Amino acid sequence: MHKKFVTNIGILLFLNLLIKPFWIFGIEREVQHVVGDANYGEYFALFNFSFLLNIFLDFGITNFNNKNIAQNNHLLTKHFPRLFVLKLALAVIYIIATIIIGVFINYDIRLTKLLLVLGFNQFLISMVLYLRSNLLGLHLFKIDSIVSVLDRVIMIAICAVVLWGNIFDVEMDVMFFVYTQTAGYFLTALIAFFIVVSKAEFLKLNWSFPFSLMILKKSFPFAVLVLLMTFYNRIDAVMLERMLDDGASQAGIYAKGYRFLDATNMIAYLFSVILLPTFSRMIKYRESVEQLVKLSFTLLGSLAILVAAGCCFYSGELMQLLYPTDNTEQTAQIFGALMCCFIATSTTYVFGTLLTANGNLKELNIIAGSGMLINICLNLILIPHYSAFGSAVASLITQVLTGFAQVLMVQHKFKFRVNYRLLVTLAIFVIGVIAFNYFSKYVSANWMINFAVMIFASGVWAFTIRLLSVKSMVRILKYG
């Protein structure tokens, strides 16, 4: 069973790391170059805005369903027709609420139209995730791995033809880009729907108010957590676009720096996919999770430190590589600040996942609610003075504070002893990585060679000071 689990997780990681970075750096980057910072900034702000009310789309149903179907496969036929109808009802509430709030904050007809399509896309994304939860519950891991990247494959194919194919007389603009996403999500949802239906063997969809109320009550704490975390992770671009005269352009510049953080966070998220069921099982059987927390935090944390430091020291070169025709000074500054967030978010994906597995949703909601208030206040203060860079700093401060709070909460709940040896080793690693970044700048005239030297030296350094070891990396796989 362990070997099968690790193999399937490996397939999931491989497919996602193969497809999604190409979408982010190949397609999204090229689309922004074609449509311009201002137009893309409007899209990016509205895309983030469409995330804010995601609580109405899912309400924790996907999380509940994943666990429920995994434990009781026979309930798929009974629950699927009711949950599917409930998802449709929640989608109507979400679309109406999103449009009303959009009108309230003065989105014009053009932006409201774009927001409507983006909202529909969010519904399709939520539906795909719900359908995938059934596949995961049935342990159809290989099928789920394919479905997890199918939408991006479809979008990449369409956008690549338009951007580089020169076959059809179609011009890439923001609306076409959004409609491409609609096509990808819709086809993926349709395929996933028929796969689940073939397993469920249900006759007709039906609505049950008592059943829906029971589900919503059970999933409410998780839904609130998702809402609060979405706000402090996604509201930056929305506030930028609304608060400044050149807000659309500033949101576009912010998107350039955020793009790389989004890609690296995907690695941390996929890492948490392994940790959540593992922590849950160990807690259920009263096994100590301390060693696994140490191993996972060391592995993900050392990667985050290396990535964040490298992106700070080489921010100008990396931004010039991605956006060669732009003035990259402001983008590089924003990029450096945002990439430091990766250390904090990596911490969250380990310690927050442990708290979730332990059922400490009340504590997580308090931390997330505090993070949301801090982020909004900091943005209100910093954006008028520092524009997009102010939002990056606000995000960094918020992520650091919430990550640190989760570490303290885990310490309080699990009574872990303070591992001074690990803390000292991490500090030595940080000093070494900073030194390697500084001196690597003088290795040659080619910054790419210097960057590669820095990565190699930092990797060797991690093993030299015994922060990482081959034995520990093998051991963390055995927990799967």
Number of strands: 0
The whole-angstrom Rg is 23 Å
Q: Give the SSE order as H and E letters.
A: HHHHHHHHHHHHHHHHH
Report the end-to-end length measured between terminal Cα atoms.
9 Å
Q: What gross morphology would you assign?
A: globular
Tell me what the structure shows.
- With 480 residues, this protein is mostly helical.
- The chain has 2 domains: 34-207, no CATH class; 246-480, no CATH class.
- It is 85% helix and 0% strand.
Write a brief structural summary.
The protein has 480 residues and is mostly helical. Helix content is 85%, strand content 0%. The radius of gyration is 23 Å and the shape is globular.
Topology:
Elements (H helix, E strand, L loop, with lengths): L1 H34 L1 H13 L5 H4 L2 H11 L4 H29 L4 H29 L3 H25 L8 H27 L8 H35 L3 H38 L5 H24 L1 H8 L6 H29 L3 H54 L5 H21 L6 H18 L5 H10 L1
Features:
480 residues, 2 domains, mainly alpha, 17 helices, 85% helix
